[in-house]
Amino acid sequence: MASTLLPLELIDKCVGSRIWIIMKGDKEFTGTLQGFDDFVNMVLSDVTEYDYSGGPPAKMKKILLNGNNVCMLIPGGEGPMANGGR
Q1: Which of 36, 47, 66, 83 would bridge 60 by S-S if both were Cys, CB 3.0 to 4.6 A apart?
Q2: Whole-structure pTM over 0.85, yes or no?
Q3: Other beta carbons less than 10 A from residue 50's beta carbon
Q4: How confident is the model at residue 86 (pLDDT cuts 50, 70, 90)?
Q5: CB-based burial, 16-46: b 16+ in 10 Å, e otherwise
Q6: 62 and 37 in contact (C-beta within 8 Å)?
């Protein structure tokens, strides 16, 4: 019988690794996942924010993301610019 991996278990395996987060709306983030809670609120470090409503990517040391606004998580992802843009 195949073992199952629950979503929060997968996120837990990503702590300390790079992750690409696509938010509802026009924002995406890449950074190192420092931690998360049961609501998938996340703390990231060494963050790059991509805002498609205008402006260049912004760099931040640390950020807290609200899990209600997360659309998709991509473990190991380096963001939209890694593959030639969105």
Answers
A1: 47
A2: yes
A3: 21
A4: low
A5: eebbbbbbeeebbbbbbbeebeeebebbbee
A6: no
Q: Give pLDDT tens digits for 23-66.
A: 999 899 999 999 999 999 999 999 999 998 888 999 999 999 99
For residue 10, give the H/E element and its range: helix 7-13
Listed in sequence order, the residues at least 6 apart from 15 whose beta carbon sits closer than 8 Å to its beta carbon are 33, 34, 35, 36
Which helix (H) or strand (E) covers residue 46, if one does? strand 42-51
